[in-house]
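To: structure subgroup
Subject: Chain for Friday's discussion

All,

I'm putting the inputs and outputs inline so they're searchable in the archive.
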Amino acid sequence: VEYRFRVLNLPPENLITSISAVPISQKEEVADFQLSVDSLLEEDNDHSRPDIQVQAKRLAEKLRCDTVVSEISTGQRTVNFKINRELLTKTVLQQVIEDGSKYGLKSELFSGLPRKKIVVEFSSPNVAKKFHVGHLRSTIIGNFIANLKEALGHQVIRINYLGDWGMQFGLLGTGFQLFGYEEKLQSNPLQHLFEVYVQVNKEAADDKSVAKSAQEFFQRLELGDVQALSLWQKFRDLSIEEYVRVYKRLGVYFDEYSGESFYREKSQEVLKLLESKGLLLKTIKGTAVVDLSGNGDSSSICTVMRSDGTSLYATRDLAAAIDRMDKYNFDTMIYVTDKGQKKHFQQVFQMLKIMGYDWAERCQHVPFGVVQGMKTRRGDVTFLEDVLNEIQLRMLQNMASIKTTKELKNPQETAERVGLAALIIQDFKGLLLSDYKFSWDRVFQSRGDTGVFLQYTHARLHSLEETFGCGYLNDFNTACLQEPQSVSILQHLLRFDEVLYKSSQDLQPRHIVSYLLTLSHLAAVAHRTLQIKDSPPEVAGARLHLFKAVRSVLANGMKLLGITPVCRM
């Protein structure tokens, strides 16, 4: 709702940032908008507290009520506005229904936002090794960030950077020749390669000749031996095929499956470039390092080459960044990994800078905390599929034990979608950086602030629309939505753009999560008190409109978080 502040002689862009919708309160009725006097007067910084309060009062006296604003008052360092109730109702509901999936994204907060090219690297498991909880977190967080950036109109490239090179493939090549089965590889590549890897590691520890032939196999790979490479390629292709299938269950996809293997030659070029710039130092052990401090400070020394001349993880990351800049000419590149890699990325970005790449500052690391204690029936998490199967199974059991569960066409799919919502909400409730202890019981609580509750709310609102049809939805009378429960919902819907803006600024999903949970609580209260059945058609129609708007915004928010809303439960 735009309100003319001509009396203030201020540019409109100052106002947009100073005005916000007021968060609803359980205790009392609140105004709709507040103008922060602090941020308006930021230019002159010597304002003491009482002075601001005086300014707020003066402002409030200058401003007049009109057909839009029905009441003006002052709060703590703010001027508060109450909007004409019928206008508020009509404008918000029309906007939600008209904008559909774009609601909140068309806000002035995002106007003038340039379209950018954004690369997001996430998930990035190691072929033949465990897909652990860290990879799972990286997958859902990276997916959220990519979804959010895309929704804001940016062009997003989603990259999965596989651990598909290195000594493990020497072991794997040798192991497969000893213990591998072609048919097992074809039918369940991830599991079979993992088993081979575990077995050959045991053998290599006891038998020096196995270790030696593993080294030889890797050297053959490095030198480009055709036979060794074709076996390696088969491992990689079959693994990716399987990953694509499992990611699909998660609702995640990638534009590019890259990997460390792509950067074997390119990392040699990086080493040459470092050397030509005089940045490469040889150590006594024969390794090569870069001293980022310039004064021999040991904590700023980064190893970029082994003594045998082969590249390391850091070298390959440098090569990958340079390659992606050439290929995509990105405006931002975001790496989503656990916080243990914080120093690694600081060093990579710093090295890019001293190599003369100014775009290093477009690179960003989004770190997240550690999850402890996630186990499935098969023990520790080994494969992503185990987690998905566990979620599905537990949710099916829950659904079976609840009397109100309706007959579903495909209970497995519903169970998986509800279960994933539960997992994602549990993960996104706090700061991404915080560690937490995982508990299945807490994930699947049916009461309280969980993903199950969001899905339940969505399904319930959907069934209202099905039951009462959309015959009512053509026209509605705004005067029928003046109960406090309706007004609270409208005020909350008003804030959606601010919440999206917050998350777009700090890339934390928790703002959206807490917004959706509040929306669901408000919807539950309204559902109990605002009957549709047995109400006059005009009232029923208006209430249906309100519930449809809630469901629409709830679905938009859930999809951004990477959750597929269910319509029956």
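Points worth raising on Friday:
The radius of gyration is 28 Å.
Residues 62 and 92 are 27 Å apart (CA to CA).

D.
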